C-alpha cells in the first residue's frame, strides 16, 4: 500500500511539473498590449534583458511545443520562426535576439553561430510535424540563405567543420574557440535537416548534403575522441594525444583551437574539459558511436549525484582567475566555481540528456534525471522558479595545520591522488593565494607550517565527503595533519534568470521521452542513412 502511494505521489509531481512547464511556455508567448507578438521570449520577467526573443531559447521552446501537441504553443513556434525570418540579414545571418522595440542583435563580442544551425533545425522540424505547406514555402528560402551563410562565413573549407569564434555560441562567457563539439553536432543535424528538405522538393543536391553530414559525423567521432593508442600524422592531434586520453576519460572533447601556426599553441587546458551540451547532443543524434555513448553515460554517472541529479555544464571546474584574466563577461562576472558555465547545472541540456537515455533504453536513469529537472524547476528563490541553472554544492573548512613537518610532500601527493579521483573540485587557500589540490607542487609552494591557518573548499556533489576525508588525513606514522574543525556546507541553489522558457522546455522534452516514449530527433540506428522522425 505504501509503495503504491509513493509511486502515485511521484507521478502526480511529474504531471504537475509538466503542466506548470506548459503554462510557462504560454506566459512567454504573451506580448505587451501595444506590441505585436514575437513568439517565445526567453523569460516571462524582464530581468537581464531576457524578455526578448533569443533564437536558441525560442527554438528549444518550439521543439518542446511540438512534442506537447498544444495548438497555441505550436502556433507560437511558427510566430517565432517568422520573426527570425523577417529579421534575417541579407547575407543569411539569423539574429541572436530580437526585442519588442525592434532592436536586433547578431552578437556582441563576436557573431553568434548557433542561432543559424538551430533556426534550420527548427524550421524543418516544424514542417515535419505540421505538414504546413504554406509555412514551408515561406521557410524554404530563409533556410537556404542560412545554410549558405554558414558555408561561406564559418565553414572550414579543408575539413567541413564550423569555426566558432570566442563567444560564438550559448556558452558565451566560457573558454572555447575553434571547432566546438556542441556546434559541430548542431551543424550535422542542420545539414541532415536541409538534405531532407531538398529531398522533399526533389532537388538532387539532397544526397550531397546527406554525404556532407556523414562526413561531419565521422570527423566528430574520430577527431573529438582522443586516444593515446592512436598514431596519426596530424600534428595538432598528435600533440593532444600526448596530453589527454579521452578514450580513458569517456567523453568527446570540448573543442579544437586551430588558428595558430604553432601546433603547441593549438592545445589549451580547456580542450579536454567535458562539455555536457555537446556530449548530450551527440548521444541523442547518434553522432557518438554505441561504444562511445556507453562511455559518456558512465562518465556522467560518475560526476553527478544519485538523487534528483542534473549534469554540470562543464567539468572539471576552472579557477575563477582563469576567466577574469580573459575578460569574457559582458555585464557582471558569473563564472565562479560551480556557477553558470563553470560547473553550474542546467535543466536545459539535462532534458536533452534524458531524451538520449530513453533512446538508449536506460529508462530508470532517465526518470532519475527527469526528477532532477522537476526539482530544480520547482526550487523557488525570491518568489520565482524555473531558473536558468543550479549552483553546485559547496563545502568549506577553516583548519589549522597540526603536523610538525607542516604540509609535506607526502601529504601533497596523497591529497592530489585522492582529490583527482573525486567528483568535486577542491582548492586550498591561504590569505589571497589559492591553488587546486590536484597539483601537488602548487600545494607545496604554500610552505604551510605547524600552526598555520588555511581554508579548503570543495565544490561538487561529493564536496562534504571529500573534506571529511582530507581533514582526517594522516602521515605514515598515523599522525594527523590537521586539527579537526566543523565543515560548513551549502547545497546548490537556483541562480541566473528565473521563469526561463528553456527550463520549462527541457522538462517537457524529458517528460515526453520518459512517460510517452516520444523522443526528439530519434534515429533508428547510429549507422542509418535516412532519419525516422518520432514526431
Largest sheet: 6 strands, antiparallel
How big is the Rg?
A: 24 Å
Please tell me what the overall shape is.
globular
Which whole number gives the mean pLDDT?
89
Structural class: alpha+beta
Give the termini separation. 37 Å
Strand content: 5-15%
Low-confidence stretches: 523-535
Helix content: 40-55%
* Helix count from the secondary structure assignment: 18
The total strand number stands at: 15
What's the short story on this structure?
This protein is an alpha+beta fold and 535 residues long. 46% of the residues lie in helices and 9% in strands. The strands form five sheets. Strands 9, 10, 11, 12, 13 and 14 form a six-stranded antiparallel beta sheet that branches.
Which key terms come to mind for this protein?
18 helices, globular, 535 residues, 46% helix, disordered C terminus, alpha+beta, 15 strands, three-stranded antiparallel beta sheet
Question: Care to describe what's here?
Answer:
The chain is α+β, with helices and mostly antiparallel strands and 535 residues long. The protein has 18 helices and 15 strands. The strands form five sheets. Strands 9, 10, 11, 12, 13 and 14 form a six-stranded antiparallel beta sheet that branches. It has a three-stranded antiparallel beta sheet with strand order 1-2-3. A two-stranded antiparallel ribbon has the order 4-5. α3 crosses α5 and α4 runs parallel beside α6 (181-200). The two termini are 37 Å apart.
What's the structural blueprint in terms of helices and strands?
Elements: H1 2-27, E1 53-54, H2 55-68, H3 71-86, E2 97-98, E3 104-105, H4 114-130, H5 133-154, E4 179-180, H6 181-200, H7 206-223, H8 235-243, H9 246-249, E5 255-256, E6 274-275, H10 276-285, H11 290-303, E7 314-315, H12 320-324, H13 347-359, H14 363-378, E8 389-390, E9 394-401, H15 409-420, E10 425-430, E11 433-436, H16 440-444, E12 453-459, H17 463-471, E13 482-483, E14 488-490, E15 494-495, H18 501-516
Helix pairs in contact: 1-14, 1-18, 2-3, 2-4, 2-18, 3-4, 3-5, 4-5, 4-6, 5-6, 6-7, 6-10, 10-13, 13-14, 13-18, 14-18
Amino acid at each position: 500500500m505504501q509503495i503504491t502511494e509513493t509511486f502515485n505521489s511521484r507521478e502526480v509531481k511529474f504531471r504537475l511539473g509538466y503542466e506548470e512547464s506548459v503554462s510557462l511556455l504560454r506566459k512567454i508567448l504573451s506580448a505587451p498590449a501595444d506590441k505585436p507578438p514575437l513568439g517565445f521570449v526567453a523569460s516571462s520577467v524582464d530581468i537581464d534583458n531576457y524578455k526578448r526573443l533569443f533564437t536558441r531559447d525560442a527554438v528549444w521552446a518550439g521543439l518542446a511545443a511540438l512534442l506537447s501537441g498544444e495548438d497555441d504553443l505550436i502556433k507560437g513556434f511558427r510566430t517565432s520562426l517568422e520573426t527570425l525570418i523577417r529579421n534575417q540579414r541579407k547575407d543569411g545571418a539569423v539574429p541572436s535576439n530580437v526585442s519588442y522595440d525592434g532592436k536586433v542583435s547578431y552578437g556582441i563580442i563576436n557573431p553568434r553561430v548557433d542561432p543559424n544551425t538551430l533556426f534550420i533545425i527548427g524550421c524543418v522540424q516544424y514542417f515535419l510535424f505540421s505538414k504546413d505547406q504554406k509555412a514551408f514555402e515561406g521557410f524554404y528560402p530563409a533556410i537556404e540563405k542560412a545554410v549558405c551563410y554558414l558555408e561561406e562565413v564559418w565553414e572550414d573549407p579543408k575539413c567541413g567543420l564550423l569555426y566558432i569564434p570566442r563567444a560564438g555560441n550559448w556558452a558565451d562567457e566560457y573558454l572555447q574557440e575553434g571547432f566546438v563539439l556542441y556546434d559541430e553536432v548542431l551543424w550535422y543535424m542542420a545539414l541532415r535537416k536541409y538534405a531532407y528538405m531538398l529531398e522533399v522538393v526533389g532537388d538532387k543536391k539532397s544526397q550531397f548534403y546527406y554525404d556532407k553530414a556523414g562526413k561531419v559525423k565521422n570527423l566528430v567521432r574520430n577527431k573529438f575522441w582522443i586516444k593515446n593508442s592512436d598514431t596519426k600524422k596530424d600534428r595538432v592531434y598528435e600533440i593532444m594525444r600526448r596530453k589527454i586520453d579521452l578514450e580513458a576519460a569517456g567523453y568527446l572533447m570540448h573543442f579544437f583551437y586551430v588558428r595558430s601556426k604553432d601546433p603547441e599553441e593549438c592545445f589549451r587546458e580547456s580542450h579536454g574539459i567535458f562539455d555536457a551540451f555537446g556530449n548530450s547532443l551527440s548521444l541523442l543524434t547518434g553522432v557518438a558511436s554505441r561504444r562511445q555513448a556507453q562511455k559518456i553515460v558512465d562518465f556522467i554517472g560518475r560526476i553527478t549525484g544519485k538523487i534528483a541529479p542534473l549534469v554540470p555544464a562543464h567539468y572539471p571546474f576552472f579557477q575563477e582567475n582563469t576567466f577574469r584574466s580573459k575578460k569574457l563577461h559582458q555585464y557582471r562576472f558569473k563564472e565562479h566555481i560551480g556557477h553558470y558555465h563553470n560547473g553550474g547545472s542546467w535543466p536545459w541540456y539535462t532534458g536533452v540528456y534524458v531524451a538520449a537515455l530513453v533512446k538508449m533504453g536506460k529508462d530508470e536513469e532517465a526518470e532519475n534525471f527527469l526528477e532532477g529537472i522537476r526539482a530544480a524547476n520547482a526550487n523557488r528563490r525570491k518568489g520565482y522558479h524555473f531558473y536558468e541553472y543550479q549552483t553546485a554544492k559547496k563545502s568549506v573548512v577553516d583548519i589549522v595545520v597540526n603536523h610538525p613537518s607542516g604540509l609535506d610532500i607526502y601529504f601533497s601527493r596523497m591529497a592530489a591522488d585522492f582529490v583527482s579521483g573525486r567528483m568535486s573540485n577542491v582548492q586550498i587557500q591561504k590569505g589571497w593565494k589559492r591553488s587546486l589540490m590536484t597539483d601537488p607542487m602548487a600545494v607545496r609552494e604554500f610552505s604551510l607550517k605547524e600552526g598555520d591557518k588555511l581554508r579548503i573548499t570543495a565544490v561538487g556533489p561529493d564536496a562534504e565527503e571529500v573534506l571529511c576525508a582530507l581533514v582526517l588525513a594522516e602521515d605514515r606514522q598515523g599522525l594527523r595533519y590537521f586539527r579537526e574543525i566543523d565543515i560548513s556546507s551549502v547545497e546548490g541553489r537556483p541562480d541566473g534568470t528565473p521563469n526561463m522558457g528553456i527550463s520549462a522546455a527541457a522538462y517537457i522534452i524529458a517528460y515526453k521521452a520518459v512517460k510517452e516514449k516520444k523522443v526528439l530527433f530519434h534515429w533508428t540506428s547510429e549507422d542509418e542513412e535516412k532519419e525516422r522522425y518520432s514526431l
